[in-house]
Fold these 4 entries.
Entry 1:
Amino acid sequence: MAAAYAQFYKAILGDFLSSPTPAQAVLSASVLLGLGVIAYVAVYALLALAHALWPAKNLRKYGEWAVVTGATDGIGLAYAKQLAKRGISVVLISRSAERLATAEAEIKAKYPAVLTKTVAADFSSTDPALYTNIAKQIEGLDIGILVNNVGLSYPSALFFHELPSVDAALADNIIAVNVTATTRMTALVVPGMVKKGKGAIINISSAAGRIPAGNPLYAVYSASKAYVDYFSRSLHYELKPLGVHVQCQSPYFVTSKMSKIKRASLTVPDPNAFAAAAAKAIGCGASVVPFWTHCIEDSIIRSIPAAVSGPLLTRLHKGIRAAFFRKRAAGEKKEQ
Ligand SMILES: NC(=O)c1ccc[n+]([C@@H]2O[C@H](COP(=O)([O-])OP(=O)(O)OC[C@H]3O[C@@H](n4cnc5c(N)ncnc54)[C@H](OP(=O)(O)O)[C@@H]3O)[C@@H](O)[C@H]2O)c1
């Protein structure tokens, strides 16, 4: 039997296995690499799908209240609704008192049993009283969950060296909103959570903070999101033994004001679909891509070497930058 098999393979492969030509060696290596990538993506796809079908967890076990930053729009508002749906009272934080009142009314109308509280705060502010004011407003609440969602990006793809000419404060504001707010809000709630031996901190990063090449022409945003990821990963292991689950959640594109994408699709969920998947992922792992098609995208993009994806992203973003300046010039012409 074995001899028959050996003969069969020899007929098909000839002397290839024992002495392949250079062309055959390159071809077989490519096929093996391709199969490896397909297997890797397939495993990710299965995990992502299993996760999407996973039953919802009881998030009330962490505590009575959740604090959500950047909660009047997009992912933040959708996240606050997901938590309210699970019977968790929510503190909504954003800049505008008016928009906070609208978001609060929306949540109250849909989930009348939950309590809500709003705090107007601008995370780009350099006022030293910013965090002491927030601390005062949330004092005494049994905070089980903090969602550090607030984020600021570029108005368009831009070279780092031209940022000051477009918005002199942009780089500082991005660091204040994406890095400092995440760190300081975490510092506000961690002592209480450690004391109770329970809590969950969800830090919203971005694909821009995970791609091996970074995100050319969005350098400050990308770096700020990588901070969020590694801050979360480190705290995850530091605080898990103390009962506090810290997790970074990274979206790829989601329809929102920030992404400027209006129509949802299979790979671009709306904030509600994203937040539903994200709420399910709470407590599962240190750094996750919660939406299932994003997870598949992530496995593909992260398997491409930076030397390949870097120049491709740069070219793509240069096109976005050019369109931005064209639109700006047309706007200026109209005004004249
Ligand atoms: N959408 C995407 O495709 C995408 C992809 C990757 C990562 N993300 C991340 O997901 C998070 C949410 O993004 P999003 O797309 O949902 O954004 P969004 O729709 O633009 O909403 C931003 C929210 O943050 C608030 N906000 C903005 N600046 C603030 C400030 N300085 N101080 C306090 N609140 C502020 C806004 O409310 P007010 O204007 O009322 O203050 C709003 O509630 C961000 O961290 C973002 O980086 C989004």
Entry 2:
Amino acid sequence: MGRWKTLQKEDLQKCAEQGLTVRKSAEFLGLKKSTLERKIQQDSVLKAIWLARPRSYKTLTYNSETQRLVDWAKKTGIPRPTLNFRIQNGWCPECILTAPVGRQAGCRHRTKPIPTEQRCPECQTVKPLTEFCSHKSRPTGRTTYCRQCHSKKSAIANVRSANRDLPEDVREVVVELYKLNKVIKNAQK
Ligand SMILES: [Zn+2]
Ligand SMILES: [Zn+2]
């Protein structure tokens, strides 16, 4: 299984040089995205490679002023994920940069209808918003993962945290056994 491979810094370097996202890099390396993220977090050499990678920056123009989203975020105090969300939902530049942060905020000039469904990045399925737990501080008002994946992920996180004293490789074996056990139980239903 790919996830047991040790991550060579040369391989990560290749991904970084090609400007791959975490997801694409994980695919390229044959690792799970969460495993790759963890490996990068836990190894200072890998972390340095990853942080130094060249990134393409999204920009936004308003009142003939073009800035990177990071800089707009600093200037307006609106978090970058919120700016991103507003752009993706077809807000006009003025509302993107001036509307107060919160669930009630909206843009009357938007070109896209208000979404009634979203894609869960875990099961890669587009589901109605009601299939996602409510989460007030997020711009969609909903969690990123669907209810099903959310509970699966938190159960796995609990297993990991209950076994945090074990060495990482052993802990991951315990997690895999837990997942396997779930699959078997579900099959028996
Ligand atoms: Zn607007
Ligand atoms: Zn899901």
Entry 3:
Amino acid sequence: MRALRILGVILIVVMLAACLILFGLRYLYTSTSDQKAIAAAMATPAPSPTPDTTPAPTAAPTPEVTAEPTATPEPSPTPEPTPDPDSPEGRALALGLPKPPEIDIDSWEFTLVNGDNSIGTYVPEQLAYLDQTAAQTDIQYNNNGYRCPVDARIAQALLDFALGCKEAGLPVFLSSGYRSYNEQAQNFIRVCQNNGVSDGKDANGHYITMPAGNSEHQLALCCDITDIYRPVKNKEIENTATYQWLREHCAEYGFIHRFPEGKEDITGVMYEPFHFRYVGVEAAAYMEENDLCLEEFLALYRDVEGYTPQTPAV
Ligand SMILES: [Zn+2]
């Protein structure tokens, strides 16, 4: 019995020891696993924050390659059609002049009056009156004192011309504009007497004064312009600063120097540095550029009584 008891104790002890060993082993295993798990966890890199996705810069649009302008091939020069020899262009060409402006030659600005072309007892439709010294800048339509009358259609251009001269610091005097048929008749007699002639012409056959009906003053599209009032108007006026200015700028205002030196045989009138005639800016510019007097200019457009253009010798 005693042996059995001892055996039982030994068994219990052995069982207890076995239990202890098993427990210990289990503890050891668990602990190692945890450590491994922790180590594994530590080793996993923390997920880095997702970077903001910056949109990839859009490539700047490449400018469309503009094709180099292809040089327009020079059109092969088409031979200029020869203008009708009786057209203004054809007449100008025959005289070695550039193409004249396209104007209505029958318009009032181009009315011709000279020794060969009378306007009879013509009276302008409406007159306008300008202060003779251009001190007043208004245009009146009724005669009021000593004012210069001209055709109303040129009044503004004449006033601008006179004021341009004044603004240049020069004195200006509108000496004579419109003269009626009767006034011109009296004027003719007086000037003839003063010069000891009866036909109004000087020794060279050029008019000093025009008979009534043949004066541009009766047409009222002109004005004798000087620096100051002068009882006698002559060639000396060309020495004044006022004349120099007027001569240089007249075309800008549509006026021409009507009776230039060297053209007396064409105009039929002696050189008058003071007499300016309105023809409009376009015609005045062409005449100025090509050194033409009114008769020469009109002859490009139509036949002119008393004047035959001289074709230059080839
Ligand atoms: Zn005059």
Entry 4:
Amino acid sequence: MKNACQNSAFPPASMPSVLASPARIKFWGTRGSIAVPGSGTLRFGGNTTCVEVRADGEMIVLDAGSGIRPLGVALDNEFGTQPIKLSLLITHAHWDHIQGLPFFRPAYNGKNEIRILGFDGAGAGFKEIMAEPMRAPFFPIAMRELSGKIDISRLSEMTFSLGKVQVHAIFVNHPGVCAGYRLLTSAGSIAFLPDHEPYEFFLHSARGNKMSPEQAKKTAADGHEALVQFLHGSDILILDAQYTDEEYQRHIGWGHASVSSAVALALDAEVHRLLLFHHDPGHDDQMASTDCSAFAAGNIVPKFLPRCLVV
Ligand SMILES: [Zn+2]
Ligand SMILES: [Zn+2]
């Protein structure tokens, strides 16, 4: 995609490209909820969530929305007969974050090693979450029938390593169980929170209904503070900014953020660069690209804007 923060030059095919590559991020799917291909989404793309990170000899894929299909095609072309080794980190089980996996070509080749990691969901184990969408009658090929070396790992720790990349996890404010990740690479840290609603407006909590208003307020404040600490000083924050502020008023409790609340969180956490992500399927390129300038017109945090990008 043209808008990706990426190094476009691949090394020659005979080289171990992941080891040779400088650190990079490439966006293969930036859309929330459902894929929206068409002339209105050519710039920011119509595919759902999928981000590729290469750093410290590791290839880490963040979520398996429909954007993972073109990633798979590109990896096949890049690696040819060489094995592809990657880790796929899943934030949560909503369709827009897993629906592309059955169409990820490297999973169908025995030379490739794919480790899939994530947390158990609400009422479903992680292995079940990943296998269920590929079960009949939903899909003709079962997960166990994939030819690639697929290892599905249920996460139980909030800190773990993928090679030299240390990963921190946190549960965010979204319906069900949803994780955010922070990757600590030698080139800087990348935080990935594709789906998150600001705690101050709505609390997604299994205990929420049983709380008094005071307890809910404290839980929300504690959640926000923990998230600010988790994100603090990140070099890059890829963050849910699905709605305009006006739209958000009609979608409180849907699990997503507005542009201004995304910027407010980034400011609280003193991140270096905020990337607005998980665009609403109703937003075309023009609307997505004017999100920042519309925010500037509000004159709330004008100094921040040069480092605030739509991806
Ligand atoms: Zn989503
Ligand atoms: Zn979600």
